[in-house]
Amino acid sequence: MGKTAKRYLDVDPWVIRESGFHPERAVASESIFALANEFMGVRGAFEEGYSGEGMPGFYFNGIYEKGVHRYSTKFKGFAEQWTFMVNAVDWLYTRIVVDGEQLDLARCRHDDFVRQVDMRRGILERSFVWTTRAGSQIRVAFERFPSMSCLCMGFQRISLEAINADISAELRIGLDFSTEYHLRQSRPWRIGRRSLDADGWVAALGRTQSSGHRLFSAFRLSGDFSGTGDVFSEENLVGKVIRLPLKMGQVSRIDKTVVHHSEKDIALDDGTVCDEGYGRLARYGSLSYDEAVVAQERYWKEAWARHDVVIEGDDENQQGFRFCIFHLYQTYHGADPRYNVGAKGLTGEHYWGVTWWDTETYCLPFYIFNNPMAARNLLAYRYRTLPGARKRARDFHLPGARYPMCTIDGEEVCDVWQHGDLEIHVSAAVAYGVWKYHHLTRDDEFLYGQGVEILVEVARFYAARGSWGQLTGEFGFWGVMGPDEMHLMVNNNAYTNFMAKKCFEWALGVLAVMAETRASCYRDLCDLLSLRDEELCDWRLKADRMALMLDKGSGIYEQHEGFFNLPHIDYSHIPDDQFPVQKKWPYVDLFRYDLIKQPDVLLFMFLFGTEFSGDDLRRNFEYYEPRCSHESSLSPAIHSILAARLGDAGKSFEYARYASRLDLDDYNNNTWEGLHVTSMAGTWMNLVYGFGGMRSDGDLLSFDPFCPPGWEAFSFRLCIGEKGVLSVRVGREESSFMMGKGTHASIVVYGNELVVGDKEVRVKPPSRGIEAVIFDLDGVIVSTDKCHYLAWRRLADEEGIPFSAEDNERCRGVSRMGSLEIVLEKSTRAYSSEEKQEMAERKNAYYVDMLKEISPDDILPGAMEFINVLKKNGIKVAVGSSSRNSPRILEQIGLGKMFDATVDGNDISRSKPDPEVFLTAAERLGLPAQKCLVVEDADAGVDAAVAAGMKCLAIGSAVSNNKADFSATSLQAIPSGVLDFIGIPGTVLKKV
After folding, report:
1. Separation of alpha carbons 859 and 874, rounded Å
2. Over the stretch 248-273, which tens digit does the pLDDT of each residue have?
3. 3-state SS string over 780-792?
4. What confidence tens digit (pLDDT) does each residue in 23-42 have?
5. What is 161-212 written as a DSSP string?
6. Which pairing describes strands 467-468 and 201-208: parallel, antiparallel, or unpaired?
7. Which of 176, 429, 738, 822 could be disulfide-bonded to 93 (CB atoms 3.0-4.6 Å)?
């Protein structure tokens, strides 16, 4: 990917840990150590206050500020209002003073800093030793978590231990509504009502200035202190002061229990909102910190038992994959259908807390297979916001539903018109979610109660938004922007057209079944939506005549009209200091080339994988992948999955590794803004759809699993059917599938249908035709032709024998003594065997002396790339050379330890064209000859490979050898078909 990892966190399969404070990573760490529970989220900032760089954040789902967009020039259709998920009450507010010094890690001396989240507990822990300027040492420890089992509650524990003397600490603990919304540098909250000590609770009711949303928050303290503490009240801050004597060697604790209640209905008066808040106190407020910890640990234990993915043999990726699942469940687990998944979840302000089309295309599959109730509620959100989508369509004088590009409450808030107005594929994503959910769950109640209305209104919008081409007579969409987002106001974006065709077909299909099986409901729907038969016929015609942008000559879908003719720019040649190009290039330059931001054509080929052949996918992948900049975090996952489907395990693994640790290692230099939560769902898809080889758009779930290089095995579980759970384990030698007790399912594995019950079914992968590649050395991996030629010519000159480059060519692949006989053919005298031996040794001395100049720079183009692809995909590699100097050459070019086996002239008694060298290499690899492919550049070597019963790829001067099975001018020019033959990717090479 060409991006650098910022490594400072410990690698642990279950724990995210920072050992030692890294202030230069402080803001990114706030995102990484963020916690949430769907209702609220809190960044990992220091509760005691920190004067260094930071962006503390406390967010509540669905609570936002709003206002009117201000445009210098405004046109019809521009979004009217903005909303942003507001930074809310700092419910962890703590200030600690010892010896007259206030704790602040940016200014105070501290040691032994550790911050961690154990994902089995969902609790942030932090500890360090603070040494005051007066010399007092205090071990300070904090714990905190928003409750996963009681969403309105948050908990905090503060522990202090005096190390070297008895001391006294003063703590100010409270609720701070003066938090800053950093993107707008505003403080939107004002405290209205407050209660400073009602039965031990301190409470405040905050209100946002423009939206009028309210948040009731209350806390109580318990622990190792006497009395109740003194209350204090400031403009937007309420709390208590606790004076805590600390005995040397004893740990004193203060526990803080917080209860929240949010309200968006501005019609309710403050008294009613407070009453509801106090009602929550009465229901939940008696829960102690220790009881809450037990409930938290129980929640996560049950969640991981259902949804964990296990990777054996790779702690780094295991940590990355678990981190993604952990945050997906923190962000949303289906507790409330009023909420959705923002691109940053509840971990940061960037993207304003809005929902995008990522929810349906990336997140929904994760929830369908792990938490179907949550998946249903995500779609219920889209049904609840259908009025806003209808309103947005009317803004463009169109019927139906045009779902917004970004929204919190269902209204379009995107003020960048080319995205908010032109990305009409968002509605198709919502319709896809409806179809996908029903396709996999068969939840007819949802489909016919809510989903069908979405499908009809989306189809209605596309029918009106599209037009008929004058020249082609095809239906399509003019003036749009596809998922790529680097080409605006294009005509007939392939993804948009393909998905719109699907929307027509889904609506028509559901309506047809409904008319036949639910006639009364169908008539009611037609009356409700004024749906007529003529409209359905119109949809069918437009679906059948949709412009799909397939270039039949090449088999490649043109991303949009004219894309093939755009000026080309090589992504790999763009200087690093120009990334991200979206921010570094003049804006107009983004749209002038064939560079794309994220998959567009490849995205619909992923979503509907069963509809495209391997060759279809390969042609399009090979065209579009080199043109993708991956400047969207959504991009690597899809490329990983498609690379896996093409058999390129190495490339698939590299993309997946990047995606799984995107935030932990801050590859994009933007973790500080908040985590890439929606792309985390793509990481889960990497494992299941990529390495697990799952396709879920067909009649049955199908799997073509493989174990990535370096892993021993991996496993995952999928919810299927009404109550079924499919357990999948993929190892290097076999995969296993098993359903829960008393359930069964039909699936397809490696193309064969299986019925899986509660007894494990084991399946071995299809045997790979080729398991090793044996390389000749000289002329294939490195060229020493010049050294050979000069050494033989020097010898020949000394003996007065003519010797030409053509003569040298005949020596290629031939042993030293065999080559000497070729040299001596033009001699006018005969030589004894002793003389021949001396001449051979003399030539070798000349040759060895010349070899001293050989270096890694002499490795031939394409050789290392080919070898690395083979090794990453589990193919063994070996060297089979007749030269006795092979070990010396391999060492000098830095490949002495690269190969699984090496055979040279010192190991054999018969040189090429005898097959001994290659048969010996196969024996050392532990493989039969038929499992090996030889790469040769000399006719003698090709003859040896054929005699060994091995397949042969001829390159260079041997390219015209008709005995070879395959040919290429060089390793740099090998078509993908060679890899396909080996069993990785590619189309089958034409036999020479």
Report:
1. 22
2. 999 999 999 999 999 999 999 999 99
3. CCECCHHHHHHHH
4. 999 999 999 999 999 999 99
5. EESSS-EEEEEEEEEE----BTTTTB--EEEEEEEEEETTEEEEEEEESSS-
6. unpaired
7. 176
Per-residue CA distances from 24 to 8, 30, 54, 55, 324 (Å): 11, 12, 10, 13, 24
pLDDT at 976: 67
In sequence order, the 6+-apart residues with CB closer than 8 A to the CB of 509 are none
What 3 state SS string does 708-735 have?
Answer: CCCCCEEEEEEEECCCEEEEEEEECCCE
- For 884-893, write each residue's pLDDT tens digit: 888 989 998 9
Tokens 């993107």 correspond to: 183
- Whole-model pTM: value is 0.82
CA distances from 479 to 78, 79, 856 (A): 15, 18, 52
pLDDT tens for 822-845 read 999 999 889 998 888 999 888 888
Cα(621)–Cα(616) distance, rounded to whole angstroms? Answer: 9
* Spatial contact of 174 and 238, defined as CB atoms under 8 Å apart: yes
The DSSP secondary-structure symbol of 764 reads P
For the cut 50, the answer to whether the pLDDT of residue 990 exceeds it is no
Q: Which residues are catalytic?
A: 776, 778
Distances, alpha carbon 435 to alpha carbons 376, 387, 509, 708, 926, in Å: 12, 20, 10, 32, 50
Per-residue pLDDT at 4: 80
Query: Among candidates 352, 287, 274, 9, which has minimal Cα distance to 145?
Result: 287
pLDDT value of position 988 = 31
Q: Token pair of 291, please?
A: 């009881």
φ, ψ of residue 976 in degrees (nearest 5): -65, -20
Question: What mean pLDDT is predicted for residues 476-490?
Answer: 96
Note every long-range contact of 746-754, with CB atoms under 8 Å and residues 24 or more positions apart, other chains counting. 746/700, 747/700, 747/701, 747/702, 747/703, 748/698, 748/700, 748/701, 748/702, 748/703, 749/702, 749/703, 749/704, 749/705, 750/703, 750/704, 751/702, 751/704, 753/700
pLDDT digits (tens, 9 = 90+) for 671-699: 999 999 999 999 999 999 999 999 999 99
Per-residue pLDDT reduced to its tens digit, 863-872: 998 998 888 8
Q: Band the pLDDT of 975: cuts 50, 70, 90.
A: low
Q: Report the alpha-carbon angle 692-693-697, nearest 5.
A: 120
Higher pLDDT, 856 or 452: 452
Helices 452-465, 494-517: axis angle to 10 degrees equals 140
750 — alpha (psi -120 to 50), left (phi > 0) or beta?
A: left
Tokens at 402, concatenated: 């045009």
Residue the block writes with tokens 């065209």: 623
Structural contact between residues 327 and 682, judged by C-beta atoms closer than 8 angstroms:
no
Query: Which residue has better confidence, 401 or 835?
Result: 401
Q: Is the pLDDT of residue 738 over 90?
A: yes
**C-beta separation of 269 from 70 below 8 A:** no
Question: Is residue 863 within a helix (H) or strand (E), and if so which, with residue range?
Answer: helix 863-872
- Please report where in the chains the tokens 């889904």 appear, as a residue: 506
- Which residues lie closer than 8 Å to 93 by C-beta, 6 or more apart? 47, 172, 173, 174, 175, 176, 237, 239
Contact (CB, 8 A) for 661 and 316: yes
Angle between helices 614-624 and 635-645 (to 10 degrees): 140
Q: Which residue has the tokens 């003019």?
A: 478
The reply to whether omega before 636 is within 30° of 0 (cis) is no
Q: Strands, DSSP E only, in 651-721? A: 702-703, 713-720
* Cβ atoms of 392 and 404 closer than 8 Å: yes
Amino acid at 176: D
Other CB atoms closer than 10 Å to residue 191's CB: what's the count? 21
Evaluate whether 247 touches 162 at the Cβ level (below 8 Å).
yes
Q: Which long-range contacts (CB under 8 A, 24 or more apart) does 218-221 make?
A: 218/175, 218/258, 218/259, 218/277, 218/278, 218/281, 218/285, 219/91, 219/173, 219/174, 219/175, 219/256, 219/257, 219/258, 219/259, 220/256, 220/257, 220/285, 221/173, 221/254, 221/255, 221/256, 221/257
What the block records as the tokens of 606 is: 């992923």
Q: For residue 84, list its beta bridge partners.
A: 65
